[in-house]
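We treat protein structure as text, and this decision shapes the records that our systems exchange. Such a record has a labelled line for the sequence and another for the C-alpha cells. The record that follows is passed on verbatim for readers who wish to inspect the format:
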Amino acid sequence: MLQSPVPSHYDQGVTTEDLPGAAPEHPQDAARAGSGPVFRSLAIDAIPVPDYADVIVLPVPPGCPSDPQVWAQTLFSPQSMPAWVRALMGVRQAVVGLAGINRAPKDVFAVSDVRGEEALISADDTHLDFRCGVAFDAGARLLRVTTTVRLKGWRGRLYFAPVRVLHPLVVRSMMVRAARRLQRP
C-alpha cells in the first residue's frame, strides 16, 4: 500500500495548528502558531472539481498593499505582463478563431468578487470556464494565485494543451512584476 507523502489534513484546507496535539516542527512555527495561512480559495469554491488547477505562492517585500483587488488588477494589467506574455496573448487572440473559439473581451480579467483577503476573476466561454483567486496574506506577506479550469469539449482540450504547459511560468512572471510595481520605496 502506497502512503501519501503529504498528510491528508493538508488536502482538506487546514493547517497543523487546527489538529489537536500537533506540535510545530520548526521554532518559528511555534511563534506563529494559529496565524499561518490556511489554503482555501474562491476559485476552488467556484470549480470544486477542475480539469486543471494550480496554486502559485510568492513572498513579497514589506510595504506592499494588502487589498486583494489591487493585487488582482495589477497582476492582470498589461503593464505587469512581461513582453513575451503580451506577445502570447496577442497570438492567442489571432489564432483562436481557427478553432471556433471566441476572442477574449478586453475585460476578461476583471475582478468579479472580493471576499476577505481574496479577489476572484471569473470567465466562462464555450470552450472553458476559468476562475482565478488572487489572495494576499498581509501577515505572512504571501501573494497566492489559485487557478481552476473546467474544460468543455474538444475545443477546450485543444486550446488548453499549450496553455497547461506555459500557465505556471506566465503567472509567476506576472506575480513578480506586480510585486515590483506595488512595492513602495
About this structure: The helical segments are 27-31, 42-46, 68-75, 83-95, 153-182. Strands lie at 52-59, 111-115, 118-124, 128-137, 142-151. The radius of gyration is 18 Å. The first helix runs from residue 27 to 31.
